[in-house]
Design brief:
The complex is a heterodimer of chains A (about 350) and B (about 270). Chain A has helices spanning about 50-55, 100-110, 115-125, 140-155, 170-190, 200-205, 225-230, 235-240; strands at about 10-20, 20-30, 35-40, 65-70, 70, 85, 160-165, 190-195, 210-215, 215-220, 245-255, 255-260, 265-270, 275-285, 290, 300-310, 315-320, 320-330, 340-345, 350-355. By secondary structure, chain A is α+β, with helices and mostly antiparallel strands. Chain B is mainly alpha-helical. The chains are: A alpha+beta (about 350), B mainly alpha (about 270).
């Protein structure tokens, strides 16, 4: 099965969806490049599922336009869109066998029973479920049901594949495996895929590009690295990974750089359009560096808590700019609680953020 | 040791007593009916029939006796009632259970309304209307009366059956390219089928047992088994009444067996095709 040439771009132009007075999606514009996996990430109720359903045609936009493969599909019903969705609940037909579930879409499109069955078997083998065709969905484990749901969507070789929180019903151990499987399948088939999750680790692991949503709008979009290292604002910094947000001051702008004062130290950072005055600084826990005693250009800190976690040590350190959460990979040495440390910042993982 | 024995005995005596009472209440009348069906002579002080025999069976099934005709009438009326009630409840249940219908609550209560009044009062008036329409004393008139009573249950049960189906299943079918009609026949209807069949059984049994409506609308042209039973009982002919009841059991049990066979999961799984 080769769908590469079929993969299509999805484009939203100022798309809105309101349910009565509730605006679930507000003037969202986005582009999903053909053959890439884009994740919609955000807290509960921010409009992720609604965005996905708009692509599938299960909801119609109240304003704006949706294009799939360059064609305006804004008002095209779900039945006529070449988009397959893997539902959060899997939505397998409980009265049909696995094989009937997987071949359903093919049968609907008029394929002969025998041929549809053979094709369904082939796709079942592809998702590592060969020989399960005769079972009912109720006779499968959660992970197996999920794979059947994926097979049912894949068998139609859709232009766009949609996943709504596909891992939420699986136990923690299985999640890592299944998300790798999904990513591998998507890359091998070159499928345009939109993936909804509210788990940032999952989003970082599987995506070519992440769209962070907040209150029905897009907060930021970009590659996993961009979002982690250069979050636009406090919300994104906090949502993707852990971040210490501290008050700082831009002393002056020097070309592309802003000279930022944090407590007693000054560091140069990209100014990102901010002007001199008070600003927020986001610092990743692993970008805080601890040293013995208070040296010249470091903040004076006191260790409040130290937790040994095998692979790294977590500290809580009190500093003049507030408490900092620190992750230190140097497990061979440990600062004890109550001790004094010098606190400085690495070059990466420290950014100015918009409030 | 003896203490334990005594306490278990103390616990078992009331349980045994309750079981016996329940069995007596349920099976007592049935046993009595069975005895009467094979009795020739039985009068008061005797605990059991004095003479046994099949003489009354011969009378019931005699060509000029109308038991067979009543049986056929009863079954035909019940089957027709089921067909009509179910064909109305499927679209009604779908609309009420799956779609946004204005006045939904009121519509559901409206079906219940005839049951709220004394059934004799309702049926006397129905009979009068049917007389003026020429429906009294006809097969179809009786079917209509039974349908009116059966619809309450079949519409309510079907509505519940349709309402419990997960919306996402229909959305999944549409997402896979199925039209609205195809989605209904391959996903929605098969999933509601157990509930619809249950309502069918219910309507069948209700119709088979219906007396008041049939009495006012059907008599004297249409006779069903319950009417025959009533006449026999009123004449003090317990043998005929008992035999008629036993005959009434046959279609009930047969219908339930057929449906039960249908409701088996393996059969249900194949309805999807
Ligand atoms: N059919 C509907 N009718 C009314 N309001 C709705 C409907 N569907 C969604 N909403 C509302 O729209 C908003 C966005 O819902 P949506 O399901 O898209 O959120 P989500 O980001 O998927 O959240 P979650 O992570 O909890 O699944 C919510 O406020 C929700 O209450
Ligand atoms: Mg959701």
């Amino acid at each position: 099965m080769n769908t590469t040439q079929k993969a299509a771009a999805v484009v939203f132009e100022k798309v809105s969806k309101a349910f009565g007075s509730v605006v679930a999606v507000n003037e969202v514009s986005l582009t999903v490049e053909p053959g890439t996996l884009v994740t919609l990430l955000g807290p509960s109720g921010c409009g992720k599922t609604t965005t996905l359903r708009l692509i599938a045609g299960l909801e119609m936009p109240t304003a704006g336009k949706i294009f799939i493969a360059g064609r305006d599909v804004s008002l095209l019903p779900a039945t006529d869109r070449d988009v397959s969705m893997v539902f959060q609940s899997y939505a397998l037909f409980p009265h049909m066998t696995v094989l009937e579930n997987v071949s359903y879409g093919l049968r609907v499109s008029g394929m002969k029973k025998k041929q549809a069955g053979e094709k369904a078997e082939a796709v079942l083998a592809q998702v590592n479920m060969p020989g399960y065709g005769a079972r009912l969905p109720s006779e499968l484990s959660g992970g197996q049901q999920q794979r059947v749901a994926v097979a049912r969507a894949l068998v139609l070789e859709p232009q766009v594949l949609l996943f709504d929180e596909p891992l939420s019903n699986l136990d923690a151990k299985l999640r890592r495996q299944v998300r790798q499987d999904i990513r591998e399948l998507q890359q091998n088939l070159g499928l345009t895929t939109v993936y909804v999750t509210h788990d940032q680790a999952e989003a970082l692991a599987v995506s070519d590009s992440i769209i962070v949503m907040r209150n029905a709008e897009i907060a930021q979009k970009g590659s996993p690295r961009d979002l982690y290292e250069k979050p636009e604002d406090i919300f994104v910094a906090d949502f993707i990974g852990d971040a210490n947000v501290v008050k700082a001051e831009i002393v002056r702008i020097d070309g592309e750089q802003a000279i930022v004062r944090v407590g007693v130290i000054e560091i140069p950072l990209p100014h990102r359009g901010l002007t001199p005055g008070e600003v927020d600084l986001a610092i990743r826990p692993e970008s805080v560096q601890l040293s013995n005693g208070a040296a010249g250009d470091a903040l004076a800190g006191e260790v409040l808590k130290a937790t040994y976690l095998g692979g790294h040590i977590e500290y809580t350190v009190a500093t003049p700019v507030g408490e900092l959460f620190v992750i230190d990979p140097r497990v061979h040495m440990m600062f004890s609680p109550g001790g004094t440390v010098g606190v400085s910042f690495a070059e990466r993982g420290v950014t100015l953020v918009h409030p | 040791m003896t203490g334990i024995l005594r306490s278990t005995a103390a616990a078992w005596v009331p349980r045994g007593l309750i079981l016996f009472l329940v069995a007596f209440v349920i099976f007592g009348p049935l046993a009595n009916m069975l005895l009467w069906a094979f009795t020739e002579v039985w009068y008061f002080p005797a605990k059991l029939p004095i003479e046994w025999g099949f003489a009354f069976w011969e009378r019931v099934f005699r060509p000029q006796g109308n038991a067979m005709e009543s049986l056929i009438n009863s079954v035909l009326i019940a089957l027709t009632t089921v067909v009509i009630a179910v064909s109305v409840s499927i679209p009604a249940g779908y609309a009420l259970g799956r779609r946004r219908v204005p006045w939904r609550g009121i519509i559901l209560v409206a079906f219940l309304l005839p049951q709220a009044f004394p059934s004799v009062a309702v049926h006397i008036n129905v009979a009068r209307i049917f007389y003026s329409m020429g429906l009294a004393g006809t097969f179809f008139g009786v079917v209509l009366v039974h349908t009116m009573q059966g619809l309450v249950f079949s519409v309510w049960i079907s509505t519940a059956a349709f309402a419990t189906i997960d919306h996402e299943l229909e959305e999944a079918a549409r997402n896979l390219g199925a039209s609205a009609l195809r989605t209904f026949f391959t996903v929605t209807l098969p999933l509601a089928l157990p509930g619809i069949m249950a309502s069918g059984i219910f309507v069948f049994l209700l119709s088979l047992d219906e007396f008041t409506g049939t009495f006012f609308v059907g008599v004297p042209d249409i006779t069903t088994l319950p009417l025959l039973l009533f006449t026999a009982s009123m004449e003090g002919n317990y043998q005929i009444a008992s035999i008629t009841s036993l005959i009434l059991l046959v279609p009930s049990v047969a219908f339930m067996l057929i449906i039960e066979r249908f409701l088996k999961a393996d059969v249900l799984a194949k309805i999807g095709n």
